[in-house]
Amino acid sequence: MKQTPKLRRSGIGGSDMPAILGLIQSRSAVDVYLEKLGRAPGFAGNERTELGNLLEPVIARIYSKRTGHKLEKMETLRHPEHSFIMANIDRRIKGQDKGVECKLVGAEMFLYSGKWGDEGTDEIPMEYMIQAQHYMLVTGWAEFDVAALFGTEFRVFTIKRDEDIIRHILQSALAFWICVQTQTPPAAVSVDDMRSLYPASNGLSVVADDETRELVQRLHSTVAEIDLRKEIKELLEIQIQDKMREATILRGPEGEELCIWKEQTSERFDIARHAKEHPETHAEYMKETKTRVFRRKKVKQ
User: Fold this and answer.
1) Which strand (E) or helix (H) includes residue 169?
2) What is the pLDDT of residue 290?
3) How many Cα atoms occupy the beta-carbon half-sphere of 36 within 13 Å?
4) Beta-strand (E) ranges in the chain?
5) How do residues 149-186 score in pLDDT, each as one tens digit?
6) CATH hierarchy code of domain 5-197
7) With the CA atoms of 211, 212, 215 and 221 taken in that order, what torsion angle do they form, in degrees rounded to the nearest 10?
């Protein structure tokens, strides 16, 4: 079932929970919070998710052929006590209290991530494990299969219900939904989170308390240390480059590569030239963006 924005904002789904628990680099709890309040559009999908949606029926058919199970689609499910906890499962095995999640896995994630185990095990990425446990929280079921297509290779993983994980998911969902209802943001974990929560300034001032002043001093000290390390890094690079001079590769005694110093070509759009040669169209391609910039001010000690 295709979810509408209104439906997505009405509760916490299985794909939301890994982000709420901090398991996804590209999406945080703050992102989910803003989406639920309608202050952010939410993830609209990309080429990979579109391909995954197109191949979901194919993966389901392969699973049915492999296991002999007949599958059925289901409408959005909700937790019997906490209706804001939702589940949109891909398929249910007919006649069984067991679901199936269909996953299209990119070759890079499969080969190099080390997060996928042998068929029949429960060795899958933690975000998918949490998603399956979230669905078992909603449905009360004891098992979920994850049917994964890796290029031309197909594997089925079986996830058993884990009460400790489910209890943690429930507690996290309850706490997060209170944040949404009271419009109290969850803790920010990145600079991007802070920019999303507070995208514009109001021109006013706030007075720093002792704790905040201490944070500012620590920031100054940290930046000074980073600057010093950058200077040391540059000095070391200069000394090594002086040993290499025109050479491209610096090798160790066993022939191993230690450093490479060679030309690199890149192309960049010449904005100034375009403006000069095509002034009549240049303005059409200029896009104004606003970003809130954070700067430190030096204070006399």
Assistant:
1) helix 163-182
2) 78
3) 28
4) 71-72, 77-78, 86-87, 91-93, 98-105, 143-150, 153-160, 249-251, 257-260
5) 988 889 999 999 999 999 999 999 999 999 999 999 99
6) 3.90.320.10
7) -110
DSSP state for residue 204 in the 8-state scheme? -
Q: Average pLDDT for residues 46-65, to the nearest whole number?
A: 90
Query: 133-142 burial, b for 16+ CB within 10 Å, e for fewer?
Result: bbbbbbbebe
What does 40-71 look like in DSSP terms, one character per residue?
A: S------HHHHHHHHHHHHHHHHHHHHH---E
63 backbone dihedrals φ, ψ, rounded to 5°:
-60, -45
Containing H/E element for 7? helix 5-9
How far lies 157's CA from each of 129, 161, 169, in Å?
10, 13, 21
Here the tokens at position 121 are: 């095990």
**Domain range summary for the chain, segments of one domain joined by +:** 5-197, 210-263
pLDDT beyond 70 at 294 = yes
| Residue burial 25-49, b: 16+ Cβ < 10 Å; e: rest | eebbbbbbbbbbeeeeebeeeeeee
pLDDT given for residue 44 in this prediction: 65
